[in-house]
Design brief:
By secondary structure, the protein is of the alpha+beta class. The chain has 1 helix and 4 strands, in the order ββββα.
Length: 141
């Protein structure tokens, strides 16, 4: 049985930005149903005075044989957390509970998936749809 903490956590997505987008057209046509590979990372930055957490997922889209990077995209999701100071330690560090990090990662990855679809629509990466990913699989930087 999982030991789930009851955490007083209320947040909202305050804003988001497209930070990077690259697309490299393949010299040869991709197969009818191409297989893409994804190299995914997530970065977190906190601003306690503004009560915000920036979650910045990035994905590199690789060819089927992983020999070429076909594109990449990076966004920033800014979350406003009213009680962010509740997670501040005596050493002036912020220690967000795993449940909070997982929630922020999940929302950010889902947002990235939608932005990818919008940004790569009509290109060879149109069907490079980010798979469903367990947001617990990421370590914060």
């Amino acid at each position: 049985m999982n030991d789930i903490q009851n955490i007083n956590f209320s947040f909202r997505l305050a804003s988001m930005d497209l930070l990077e987008r690259t697309y490299v057209a393949s010299a040869k046509p991709l197969s009818e149903k191409p297989i893409f590979h994804f190299d995914i990372s997530i970065e977190h930055k906190l601003n306690t005075s503004a009560k915000t957490v920036m979650v910045s997922p990035c994905v590199k889209i690789l060819s089927e044989d992983k020999s070429a990077q076909l594109g990449s995209i990076k966004i920033a999701c800014f979350f406003y957390i009213e009680n962010l100071s509740d997670f501040q330690t005596d050493e002036n560090e912020v220690n967000l509970p795993e449940q909070v990090v997982v929630t922020l990662n999940s929302v950010s990855l889902s947002t990235l998936r939608g932005v990818m679809f919008s940004e790569f629509r009509g290109t060879q990466l149109h069907n490079a749809i980010l798979p469903i990913i367990d947001p617990k699989a990421f370590q914060t930087k």
